[in-house]
Amino acid sequence: AQTVTQSQPEMSVQEAETVTLSCTYDTSENNYYLFWYKQPPSRQMILVIRQEAYKQQNATENRFSVNFQKAAKSFSLKISDSQLGDTAMYFCAFMNPGANNLFFGTGTRLTVIP
Amino acid sequence: SAVISQKPSRDICQRGTSLTIQCQVDSQVTMMFWYRQQPGQSLTLIATANQGSEATYESGFVIDKFPISRPNLTFSTLTVSNMSPEDSSIYLCSVEDGAGGETQYFGPGTRLLVL
Fold first, then answer.
1. Is the pLDDT of residue B100 over 80?
2. Given CB atoms, is A91 within the 8 Å cutoff of chain B?
């Protein structure tokens, strides 16, 4: 079974600074999808960024980018120019193609400090 | 991405009763999913609901406890039956994007407290 590990239960960052959230996963598959979701206090799960394992290029979405290291099974999220609205729980998730189940990590609570 | 709504947004229920949660999508989708997020925990998939067929349940979840309906391509319901305090959770529905990109988008969730 796939497992997703987020080793940082809580993190904080000063506004306008950069922070990196860690995620590792375990799978025997060669092709799969990885995601970062954000859950603010409103509890809405919001897709932040998505990476396909067969793509070597790291995904970016505005201030959000990933460092995807396939051999190391690592998928970290970098948030640049942190904003107060980035305060939320961040979940890393894994999916096999053709499967329906998203396997989530335990989450990292990020607080952006003004 | 699809716009997803859920009703109710929250509820407080007595043990032994049942609650039906509705999930509405603004576009037709093939697959809808129901997740549970227990307090302070991550999300766990309960079941997958395809229109016109029985829902597929994950290990640890059964139809008698969590019956699901999927009457059309934009709507689904999840019932939490014979509730106990252990069912207190956030219940979220999600849909897969239509572009084949394997990406799921989530509704706002239903926060359930069972007394």
1. no
2. yes
